[in-house]
Amino acid sequence: MYKTIFSHVGKYKKQALLAPLSIIGEVAMEVTIPTVMAFIIDNGVKKGDIGYVVKMGLLMMLMSVFSLAFGALAARFSAVAAMGFAKNLRSALFRKVQDFSFANVDKFSTASLTTRLTTDVTNIQNAFMMFIRSAFRSPIMLICATIMAVRANSKLSVVFLFPIPVLACAVFFIISKAHPRFEKMLRQYDDMNGKVQENLIGIRVVKAFAREDYEKKRFNENTDSVRLAQYMAEKLVVMNMPIMQLVMYATITAILWFGGHMAVEGSIATGELSSFIMYVGQILMSLMMLSMLFIMFVVSRASVQRIYEVLKEVPAISGSDDTSVKAEDGSVRFENVSFSYFDDMNKLALENISLDIRSGETIGIIGGTGSSKTSLVQLIPRLYDATEGNVIVGGKNVRDYSLESLRDSVAMVLQKNVLFSGTIRDNLRWGDENATDEEIIEACKSACAHDFIMGFPDGYDTDLGQGGVNVSGGQKQRICIARALLKKPKIIILDDSTSAVDTATDSSIRKAFREKLADTTTIIIAQRISSVKDADRIIVMDNGKITDIGTHEQLLETSEIYREVYDSQQKGADE
C-alpha cells in the first residue's frame, strides 16, 4: 500500500533526499554547540581567559549560523518535495477517476472522491513533509545527543533511560485507539461534503420552496457530527503533548537534582553539567518528535488507505487494446441481454432483451418511470456493461472496441444535461474540438439553438458560468443536442432530451434530424408520444422488458400500454 502511494513522489525524489541530508548538517551543528559551551564555561570563564571565551563564542555563533542555514534548506527541500508529491498524487487520483465507469463512481460516491482528492491528500502531504524531516532528524539527534551525554557523564546518563518505556507505552496506547476514530471522522467528512454538494446543486429548489432554515439545520447537524467525530479522534492525540512534556520536565528536574549534588561534591564540572542538561533536552525533544511522528502516521494512515482504495480500484469497464476496430455502420443488436446494477441476477433492471436496430433507423422508446429505458441505451456506448448476453454495435461486440473508438461512434444526450464553465463555443467543441464556425452554426441550427444564442450580446462567446447557470433548461438541452451532432456519430441517443422545450421546437428538431441525419441511427427516449410518433419503430418498455414493438399506428391497435399513454396525453391536449 505505502509503496503504491509513495511511488508518486516522482521527480521530487531529489528534494526528498536533499532534505534529510540537510538535516544531518543541522543536527551535527546542534549536538556540537553544547560541548563548545562547556569548554567556554570550564576553560574560559572559570580561568578568566577572555580571549578563549571570545574565540569559542565566535565559533559557537558560526555553528549556529550553519545550523540555521541547514535547517532552512531542509525546510525548503521538504516543502517542495511534499507539495510536489501531493500534486502528483492528486493527478494520479484524478486520472484514475477519469477511467472509472459509472459503476465505479457509484461505489465511492462523488462526495467521497472529492474528500479523497482534497482532505486525504492534504493529510498525506503534511505527514510526508514531517516524515522526511523528523524521521531523520529525531533518530539522528537522539543517537548523537545520547552518545555525547554518555561521554559527558555516564553515571548521570542512567536517569534519562526511565522515560523511554513511559513514552513508548503512551504512544502505543494512543496509536491503537486513534486509528479507527480517524477513519470514522473521514467518513463523516464524506457525508458532509455530499450534503454540501447536494445543496449547492439544488440551491434554486431550496429557495423556491423556502427551505433555507431546514437546510441550515441539516447542515448544522452534519457539521456537528464531523465536530464530534473529530473531537473523539483528536482528544486522544492531544494527550500526547502533555504526557511528553510531563516526562520531559520530570527528567530534567531529576537531572538537576542529582547533577546539582554531583556538582557540589565536585564529581562533575559546572560546564559539563550545563552541556549535559542541554543534551538531555535534545534527547527528550527527539523522543517527543518521534512520538508526534507516530501520531501523524496514525492520522495519515486512514487517508493512505482511502486513497489506496481508489488507486487499486479496477475500472469495471475496460476497452480492447485494438484501436483499429471501427463501427462499420450504425446498426445495434441486443442478444438476450440482461442487466443488473448490482451484478445480481435476482435484481435485474433489464431482463432477456433481444432487439435488432437497422443502421439509419429512427427508434422511439417509451415507457413509464422505472421501466429501464435509460438503462437499455446506456449499454450501447458501454457506460455500463450487460450482466448477461451481448450488445452488438456496427456488426461487432461492444467489448471488441476500444472505449474511445466505440464512444466516438455514439453520441448521447443524457437525461441530465451537463454544461461546463466556459463559453458556448467551448462547450460545443466537446463534440468536435476541430469544428469550424460554420459547422458549429449548422449544428446549432439543426438543434434550434442558433437563434437564442445569437440573442446573447456575445453570441457564441457568451460565458455560461459553472454548470450553464446563464441558460434555461430548454436552452441547455438544445446546446447539448448541438454538441452531440458535432460528433457526426453513427448512432445518436436522445434520452428525454427535449422534455424542456415546447412542442413546436421539438417538432423542428425532429424534422432537422430526419433531413440531415438520414444515415444516422437515432434512438429517442421520450415521455411525449408526439416526440416518437414519426419514428420508424417504437419500443414500449415496462419493468425492464420490451412489451411491444411497432409503428405508431400498429401500437395504437396492439399495445394496451401505448394506447393508454396516448389516450391520456391526447385527452390532456384536448382539455
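^ that was protein a. below is b, sequence first then the C-alpha cells
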Amino acid sequence: MSKKQSFTNKQILNNSCKKEVKSFIRKNKIDLIFISLIAIFTLIIVYLLININNQLGIYCSDVFIYLLNSLNFAGYSIGTRSTMYLSPIICFLTSLIFKTGFINQVAIFTVTGLFFPIASIGLYLLCRLHLNKLISLFAAFLFINFSLNILWAANGSLDIPAIAISIWIMYFSVLAVDKDPKYFTIAFPLFVIGFFTRYTVGFILPLMILYILFKIDLFNKIKLIFDKKLFKRNINNLIKSKSFKYSTIGIVIATGILTAVLSVLLKFGSNLTFISQTQDVISGGKGSTIDPGFNPDSLFYLTNLPNFISSTKISFDGPIPILEDPTLLSYFILGLIILGFLFYISKILIKLKNRNIIDKKEEQSVSVKIANEKENIDVEIPTSNKYSRKFHKILPIEIAYIKIIGVAMLSVVLIATYKEVSSVISEVLFLINILLVFNILNKYSIKDLNFNLSMFSWFIVYLIFFSFTNIKVDRYFITVMPVIAYFAAYSLNFLINEINKINFVKNNLFIKLNIPFNSNKLSNSKTPLNTNKLSNLNKLFKIFKQDNEDSPVNESVINNMKTEQNTLANEKIIANEKIKESKCIDDDNSQKSILSITLPIILIIIFLMSTFTHLETIPTKNDVIQDPIKASEWLMSYDPDYDSKVIWTHNRRYYAWYLKTNVSGAYETDLPKLKENNVSYLIFNKYILIENYTLIKSYNHVYIYKKIL
C-alpha cells in the first residue's frame, strides 16, 4: 500500500470517528450538558471543602494511616509498613502526588475529593437508566447536598471514594444484564478496585449477583432440576451465551488485578489483616467495647437519618464531628420517599387485584390436564420423570401460596435471628426473600421492579451490616446515601405522573364525555360542532391505552368512543378534528410538562442554595485537632535534630505524619519505661509529673516533656 493510500485511509477513519462523535454529542446533548453542570458544581464544592479542611486539619485519625502508607508507596519510608493493606488504591494515587515533591495533607484531600464528582455523575447515569434527565439531575444534586456527604468529602477519608466506585459498579452491572454483557468486563474488575479502596464495597457483589438472578428468575428455574435433559440443555445454552463469555473475561481480568494488588502488598511486607477481619464479620463479630465508636443501639442510623440528609449544625465531640438539628428539607425528602412508597405499593396492590393475581384460565387448564391424565387420555406433558410430573401437577395458586408462605417464614426467621448469629446470615436470608418477592410479582409486569428491588436491597444489606456491629460512625452510612437520593427522585417522578393523570381525568373525562352521539345531528345541525370534545375523546382513549396500562379502564366508555369515531362520515369534519386534536394534545402535554419541569428545577435551586449554606456551618477551628499540629511545628523548630531522637507520643498516627519521622506510641502504663528506653521527648495528652523529665511546652490538649540530662 502506498503512502498516499495509507494517508487517505487514515483520513477516512478520522472523518468516520468525527462523525460518530458528533452524532453521539447531538443525540446526548442534554445529558452531556447536565453532566457538565454536575461536574462543575461538584468541583467548586470540592475546592471549597479542601480549603476548609486544610484550615481545620485532619479530624479522622484513619487518614493519618493512609498518609503514612502513601509515603511508603512514594519511597519515603518512616517506619512500619504493616498497615499497607488499608486502602492501597487511594494510598497509591496519593503517592503519585507525593512523588512530585508535594508532601502535604492537601494531596489526599484532592484525591478523595475528586471522587465526589465521579460519584455524582455516576448516580446521574444510574438514575437515567429508569428516570428522565431532569429528575436524574435532581437526584445528583440531592446527593451532592446531603450533609453527611459534604462533611466527609475531600477530607482524606475513604467513604466518598468507596461509594463512587460502588455506584459505577452497579451502573455497569445493570448495563451488562439489561443491554450488553460486554459491560461485565468493566463491572467485575471495578469491583476488585472498589474492594481495595474500602473493604465494605465487598457487599456490592451480592447485589450484582442479585440483579443477575432477577434476569434469570431463579425460582422459575428450580423445576429444571427435576428434568435432567432440560437442565443439561439450559446449562449448555448458558455456557455458550455472551453473558457467560464476558462474565468469564471480566472475572479473569478481576483476578489479575487482585493478584497484582496482593503481590504489591506482600512485597511491602504488609499483613493481610482484611482476611481475618472478613472472617470476624462472617462469624458474627460485633467490635470491641473500647473502640471510640462503640454504640450498641441498633436504630442508630435510622434515628440519625434526618441529620444525614440535611442538618443545620455541626459540632465536635473532641475530634469527631457530629451532625445535629435536621432542617425542613430533610423531613421533606423523607416525607417524599414515604409518600411515593405508599402510592407505589398501593398501585401494585390495585394492579394485582384487577388482574386477579392468579390467571384463572391457566388454573382451569392445568386442572383439565390433570383430570385427562388420570383418565389415561393422551396429553402432552412437558416433563420426563415422576418427580417433574408431580411438580407439574401443582396448581399455580398452590405455588403462589407456597411462595407467600416462604416469604413470611423467612421474614420471621430473619427478625428472630438478627443480632443473634451473623450479619452475613441475615443478609443471605434477606436476599433470598427478595428473590421470592420478585418471583411472585414479576409476572405482573410491574415497571422498574427489578431495579427498585435492587436499590432497596442495597439499602437494607448495608443497614443490616452496620446496625449489627456495635461500632457505629456517622460516615459509614454514606454507603446508602445514593439509594436515598434515587428513591427521593423516583418518588418525585412517580407523584408528578400521578398528579398529571388525576388532572387529565378531572379536566377531560367527566366534562368532555358530554357530547351528542348522533352522526346525523352532527352533519345536519346548523349549530357549530364542538370539535374539542371529539378530539379529546381520541386523546383520552389513546392515553389510557398506551400510557396508563396500570389504571383500570371503563370498557363502556371506550366502546362509546369507538362508536362515535365510526359514525364520523364527513371527511372534512374528520380532518378538522385531527388538526384540533393535535392542538389539544399539545396543550395538555404542555400542562403536564409545566409541573414536570418547574418542580424539579425549583427543588434543584433550593438544594443548590442549601449546599452553600451548609458549607458555612463547618467549623474551621478545633483545638483538639490543631494542637498536635502546633506542638509538632514547635518541636521541629525547638530541636532541628529531633528526627534522630527517640520520641514517644500518646498517638503515633498524628505525630508520625506531622513530624515525618518514626515515633512510638505510649500509654500511661508505659511512662515508667521512658528512661530505660532512652526517650528524649514525650508528647502526651495530659499533664503528669514524670521523674527525670520536665515540661517544656504545652497547649490546650498537648504536653511536651524533655529528658533532663
